[in-house]
Amino acid sequence: MPLLITWLINAVALFTLPYLMQSVQVANIGTALIAALVLGLVNTLIRPILVLLTLPVTVLTLGLFILVINGLMFWAVANLIGGFHVAGFWSAVGAALLYSIISWALSALLLKNK
Predict the structure, then answer these.
(1) Cα 73 to the chain's mean position, in Å?
(2) Which band of pLDDT confidence, cut at 50, 70 and 90, is reported for residue 111?
(3) How far is residue 48 from each of residues 17, 21, 55, measured CA to CA in Å?
(4) How far from the centroid of its chain's Cα atoms is residue 80's Cα?
C-alpha cells in the first residue's frame, strides 16, 4: 500500500509541474501516472549504474553532477512517454529538481513515519 501511495504522490507532483514551469507539459493525469511509473523504474534500475560509472566526475564536482544525471533521466523519460514533454536539457534539470522537492513535500505531509 505505501508503494501505491508513493506512486500516486509522484504522479501528482509530476502533474503539477506544468503549472510551475512553462517548459514542461503533461497531457493528462493518465500520462502523469505512466510517466511517474517509468521515472520510478528508471531511477531504480538505470540511475545507480550511471552514478557508479560517473563517480569520479561526481566527486570532482562535489556531487553536483548528480543533478545532471537526474536531469538526463527526466529528459529521457520525457522523450519516451507520449504526452509528456520537456523543452530541453536544462529545463529537465530544473524540472527534476522541482519534481523532487514537490514529491518530498507531499510525502512529508501525507505519509507518516512509524
Answers:
(1) 7
(2) confident
(3) 25, 27, 10
(4) 14
What pTM was estimated for this model as a whole? Answer: 0.89
Quick count: other Cβ atoms within 10 Å of Cβ 100?
15
Question: Within 13 Å of residue 3, how many CA atoms lie on the same side as its CB?
Answer: 3
Mind listing the pLDDT tens digit for each residue in 4-63?
Answer: 999 999 999 999 999 999 999 999 999 999 999 999 999 999 999 999 999 999 999 999
Q: How far apart are CA 100 and CA 74, in angstroms?
A: 11
Output the CA–CA distances (angstroms, integers) from residue 43 to 37, 51, 96, 109, in the order listed.
10, 11, 12, 23
C-alpha cell at 5: 501511495
* CB-based contact 36:61 (threshold 8 Å): no
